[in-house]
Model the fold of this input.
Amino acid sequence: MTSSQKAIKAALIDLSGTIHIEDEAIPGAQGALQKLRAAGVKVKFVTNTTKQPLREVFENLSNLKFDIQKKEIFTSLTAARCVVEETKVRPLLLLEECAKEDFEGVDTSNPNAVLVGLAPSVFDYEHLNEAFRLLLDGGSLIGIHKGRYYKKKDGLLHLGPGPFVSALEYATGVEAKVVGKPQATFFHQALQQVGVALEEAVMIGDDAKDDVDGSQKAGLCGILVQTGKYRSGDESKVDPGAWGVCKDFPAAVEKILEHNATCS
Amino acid sequence: MAAALGPKGDWFLQSKSIKGFLLDITGVLYENGGVAIEGSIEAVNALREAGIPVRFCTNETQCTKEHIVTKLNRVGFNLQPHEIFPPAPAVRSFILERGLRPHLLIHDGAKAEFADVDQSNPTCVVVGDAEDFFSYANMNAAFQSLMAMENPVLISMGMGKFYSSKGKLTLDLGPFTKALEFACGVEAEVIGKPSKQFFLSALNDIGLKPEEAVMIGDDIVSDVGGAQACGLMGVQVRTGKYRPKDENHATVTPDGYVDNLLQAVKLYLKHR
Done:
């Protein structure tokens, strides 16, 4: 059990399933967020998206009456952009058109790296060969995340980016740098932006593996909320145990505030 | 790619005990795209004149044996369909023996092999080198088919990573099989090189034991490593998909390297 004796100074908050489900906010989430801010806890909204640009994520949250700023959102696309900028590579973007907006201004001429998101429209033989040849010539491989598949509204499962990242890894022997949750660097990058140390931060989410177990392995405290994709028994997927398990986001905020009260 | 570095390794010193050859086709006899590799026609003919049995082990999965023979003979080879060992007939026997019904993720040109096989309500997915047919829609359909099976069976006609086509390195089927393995959490049954059974069936056809034969190929893992694991000697040619870094490969040390097939055959005939 990760136990934090220090007061929580920052909260990383997952979006879908945690503060909203599709176009409905979790009841009381807006108020709970304000309460958290009023208590001086810094917030950052973190999400694994490979299709939605940051602008769209922001618009959705604003429409749901969440009081947030655009710069408080940190997505896996933002994380990928950070890696591109830090390593100064010129990526071939295997992304859907809509996601490319988050890479405006990035030099993609004469590419020497491959960035893979969820991009069904370019996961074809021609584009994969282009990516393969770049990697064989010494390019680096960046994966937004390695999800195996996802469920669409048609109820069917569809291939995610993971299988295609793993195909390119197998063909070239190049290991991908994966940037989204549950990678430790993802949580670290998000925290760096609010300037808070790992042991003073909490991650709140509905995905036991990617949000809670991932963040705890990265050195944060994790709170599992029992909304969204949560299924009974998910607690056991967090090893060794979540710092907190709460019925929803407002309850998670209460837990943080109670904890901080015992620290002061 | 054809670097003239000369022979490396002393496999040919054992020529007296070598009684037959297994040869890869693409990258050894001819380049994908249809041009014979210099000296390869002469090399095959020289083996035949010396009475040395030869079988052709290929992971070619885009067409039938007859098509392969037609393509090769058109550029000057003299091959017979029964000498060619591609994976498709072996896959066909495998699925018929097990009573499986395939969902085919293969090139249209290879579908003839399975024309009379029941493909309704599939119980396995068969992956060949589908090239342009490796679209997201086709990959997704194969994935959904596997996920709908009670006991998903994934069959791959080889596990090659890439090959040389029209002067460019191009993805082979292996990465696509890997993608399906990763998505579904299953391990593919590989039929074709480098599977041991595949080499043995070709050897069986010429009545030789593994230690009496040499496999010559351009794929260091599938051809050379696969043959060695089966007990044959494995020699890599510096044609086809050969890359200089194959000379210091992490897991496979060939019994020899040659500039091309003709160099290997000349060395053998001189020392036998």
Remarks:
- Chain A touches chain B through 27 residues (CB under 8 Å).
